[in-house]
């Protein structure tokens, strides 16, 4: 396989997962984050994931070293200038994404594809702040990225067929199944998943059942691999809230109103696994 260069923006759990997957499939990866500590944590987490694979006897030590040798870490956005594609996985805040895409549009050569891993923000709106709306696209990975086979490929109103084909092909090269989706709030994945999670939180809020019981119902009764509350903790409750707000605002329909308990947990800093507490306790 020809090694190609990809920059991943954001070293949070999605960014790291995307970077890890790219490395495993032969790509050279530049991992960017605005915070030095976040980049260091991202690199350490990826290295740990590779060490675990060595420990399980899946890969040789040399393979791990070869994968890590293709990883560069940076806090300078200009490092993206040599990449053929940039995959942005920054927090789900519109202003953050618009500022990043404006900057990337200035930094990267005109042929570079700018993809966003956004879980619900409009690709069309992100594309509109650049001078390359035809080369802006959604590339939405699922968490945990190295394990989940889906990539939702979202076409903004002005995304070209060529950009779509290249990104769908990249997903296939990463061992994933691309699914084509148009640009409406929450796309398909979160339009269906997030109202279920929000409703599970309403069930806690209204005292219908304990979190453990709610998750048991969906695991044992519906064969879900994990319950909606454990899944919310995995995704991050701040991200869940941001997605519900995007659905609520985008469709203007009260059925998407975020549960007040979700909002309160986020205000308290209970963000799920990443903060050590959400609907369940971690560590
Ligand atoms: N990172 C990397 N690998 C992980 C992982 C993680 N966070 N968690 C588990 N894995 C790997 C394990 O190492 C293991 O790999 P091997 O089989 O190669 O050893 C494999 O996944 C299975 O793990 P476990 O046996 O520990 O646990 P499990 O069988 O219960 O699977 C799970 C864990 C894959 C997370 C499973 O519970 C699951 O599929 N849950 C649902 C996940 C889901 O719905 N994700 C989508 C979220 S929505 C989203 O991401 C989009 C959005 O915009 C919000």
TrEMBL record:
PANTHER family reported in the protein's UniProt record: 3-HYDROXYACYL-COA DEHYDROGENASE FAMILY PROTEIN, 3-HYDROXYBUTYRYL-COA DEHYDROGENASE
Family: Belongs to the 3-hydroxyacyl-CoA dehydrogenase family.
Keyword Oxidoreductase attributed: yes
Identification of the protein by name: 3-hydroxyacyl-CoA dehydrogenase NAD-binding
Site (Important for catalytic activity): 140
Keyword set includes Acetylation: no
Parts forming coiled coils: none
């Amino acid at each position: 396989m020809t090694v190609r260069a990809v920059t991943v923006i954001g070293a949070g759990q999605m960014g790291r997962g995307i970077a890890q997957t790219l490395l495993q499939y032969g790509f050279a990866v530049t991992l960017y984050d605005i915070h030095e500590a976040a980049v260091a944590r991202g690199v350490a987490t990826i290295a740990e994931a590779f060490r675990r694979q060595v420990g399980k006897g899946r890969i040789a030590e040399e393979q791990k070293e070869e994968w890590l040798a293709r990883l560069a870490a940076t806090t300078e956005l200009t490092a993206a200038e040599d990449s053929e594609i940039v995959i942005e996985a920054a927090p789900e805040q519109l202003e953050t994404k618009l500022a990043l895409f404006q900057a990337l549009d200035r930094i990267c050569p005109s042929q570079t594809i700018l993809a966003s891993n956004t879980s619900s923000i409009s690709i069309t709106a992100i594309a509109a702040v650049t001078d390359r709306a035809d080369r802006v696209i959604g590339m939405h990975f699922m968490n945990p990225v190295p394990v989940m086979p889906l990539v939702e490929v979202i076409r903004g109103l002005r995304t070209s067929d060529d950009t779509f084909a290249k990104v769908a092909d990249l997903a296939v090269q990463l061992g994933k199944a691309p699914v084509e989706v148009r640009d409406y709030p929450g796309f398909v994945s979160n339009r269906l998943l997030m109202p279920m999670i929000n409703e599970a939180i309403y069930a806690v809020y209204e005292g219908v059942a304990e979190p453990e019981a709610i998750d048991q119902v969906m695991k044992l009764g519906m064969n879900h691999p994990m319950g909606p509350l454990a899944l919310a903790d995995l995704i991050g409750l701040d991200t869940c809230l941001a997605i519900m707000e995007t659905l609520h605002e985008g469709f203007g329909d009260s059925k998407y109103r975020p549960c007040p308990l979700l909002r309160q947990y986020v205000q308290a800093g209970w963000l799920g696994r990443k903060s050590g507490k959400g609907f369940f306790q971690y560590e």
